[in-house]
Amino acid sequence: MIKIKMRKKIILVIANTLLLLFVLFPFFWMFKTSIEPTTEVYGLPLTWFPSQPTLAHYAETINLVNIPLHMLNSLFVAGFNTIIAVSVTSCAGYALGRFSFRGNRPFSIYLIVTNLMPGIVSIIPFYFFMRDIGLYNTYWALILAYLFWSLPFCTLMLRSYFKSSFPNEVHDSGLVDGCSEFSTFWRLCVPVSWPGIAAAGIFSFILGWNEFFWASIMLTNASMATMPLALADFIGEMGRNPYVAQFMAAGVLVTIPAIILFAFLQKYFVMGLTMGSVKG
Amino acid sequence: MATKKSWFPYAMISVAVIVSMVMNVYPLLLAIFMSFQNFVGSSNHFVGLYNYISVLTDPTFWFVFEVTIVWTILVVSFSGLLGLGTALLLNEEYRFRGIVRSIIIIPWVAPPVVIAYIWVWIYSAGFSPISDFLERVHLISGPIYWLSDLSIKVGPLSFPLLSLVLVGVWAGFPFVAVVFLAALQSIPREVLDAADIDSASSWQKFRHITLPLIAKVGQISILLSTIWTFNQFVYPYLMTKGGPLNFTDVLSVFIYQKAFTDFNFGYATAAAVVMTTFSGIFVALYIISSYRSLFE
To answer: In angstroms, what separates the C-alpha of B157 from chain A's closest C-alpha?
Structure first.
């Protein structure tokens, strides 16, 4: 009996260690490169641990890439996207989850289909569309684009979530007590469902913060660039680039907010994410 | 479900519907419209099926298509297996599993731009820690060109593509793991305990109890993973731009370059429509599979 338990423990330890190594290694490498002197970055044989850690690259990178500016841009786009996305998708998710009306099923299917279409088929005409209506190179184009991405995912997620967090009985009793439909939503459902709403918000924020593809097409004005764009421009061609360490420093600075945000809220994130996929 | 006929639900979804129409329906129609035009640079005129013929007779297009299929199959299978294994691991009760579970999701929330370039650096010919490690244990003796070595290839399968697949798996398995873990945790304890009483082995329990119960969730998440991977753009584009010689070109990257580097919008939109039609098969499968769980 003890032997089996011991064996299981050993397997668990090994498996977990390998898993963590696999997941964290790139981050370790990024961090390590960002704090080692340039000579070691390009030195051979490779150093796995810097002998003289330095923060110089963090200072240098701010000279090369206007990090505060681009961080602010990203923050603006991500924040705005979150507010709009959460508002719109909560309403839509609530309607789809709570009421059976004629457009319910078709619209849900429509959302799924559009969520799963390749982005490339929409981005080309969208590019022309934005140019035609003069929104090209403005943040509106990006915010609309990100809504395009967050809308299907968040709406469907919240739809499932509201179904389980806000039972019919509560809804009906709210109406009986004289609430309007919207009050029922706003004052009864929302407070109870905030983990799911938070999950939608986190997802939208991270999407806006990390996104590269649409931003690269919609924005050509360098001073408006979000962090991913700025970083992509910065690096040009890797390998022959003398700024690897500085890029890694910038990378650390960009990844940390996403990780911190996620660390605080991951419980709700996972909860919101899986609420819909698994019938419990 | 409340069934009173009222305008309320319609009002609530109105914004979402309008945005969707603007962002999805209109661009898609426009894309189809553009695909029937010879749209190069800024001149365009109607040419019927010309673009579709060019696309479907272009050997490069078919090669890229094959590369995309290989890419999808490899990433989905490996991330699926790794995700399932991880979920099984995290399903066991041990002290640090909460922390581990949080940590493995990090690849999913880190900015792809940063991830792409970290991996490019890890894969660099001269400064790769992987090569370094392999050299130190005397498995190899020279630099490995992870992202450009075409000396070994089988059809669309090439070494650079495998390097990219590893990145795709690394970034994609957390999602699968989280979904499977939720499914595993919804299996009632009593069933597994009953199997223990009947002295079933771990493997028997897995094969006859666990697997059937998570099969549905597994199927749905595999389909979802397939669609997302097939549509993937960021990692192949940022890491290799489709090179060398189209061996890491996935459809999204190929179409993107046709549109924004060659400015051949007619060809690009036609190719995009073909791509969407193909992935539409999987989307239809997904909807069919998940129909019941979505609409009860």
So the answer is: 23
In a domain, B14, yes or no: no
- Give every CB contact of residue A181 below 8 A, 6+ residues apart in sequence: A175, B6, B8
Which structural domain range is residue A81 located in? Answer: 66-277
- Please tell me if residue A21 touches chain B, with a CB cutoff of 8 Å: no
Which of B107, B170, B295 is opposite residue A105, by nearest beta carbon? B295
Name B274's Cβ contacts closer than 8 Å, sequence gap at least 6: B52, B55, B56
Q: Which of A99, A113, A120 to mutate to test the interface with B (most CBs of B within 10 A)?
A: A120
Note the pLDDT tens digit of each residue in A60-77.
Answer: 888 777 888 888 888 888
* Among B275, B273, B15, CA closest to A144: B15
The complex's ipTM? 0.85
Q: How far out from the chain centre does Cα A210 lie?
A: 6
How many structural domains comprise chain B? Answer: 1
Residues of A in contact with B275 (CB under 8 A): 118, 120-121
Q: Across the interface, do A124 and B269 touch by the CB < 8 Å criterion?
A: yes
Tens of pLDDT, residues B144-196: 788 887 777 788 888 889 999 999 999 999 989 988 888 888 888 788 788 87
Domain count within chain A: 1
Distance from CA of A62 to the nearest CA of B (A): 16
In a domain, B291, yes or no: no
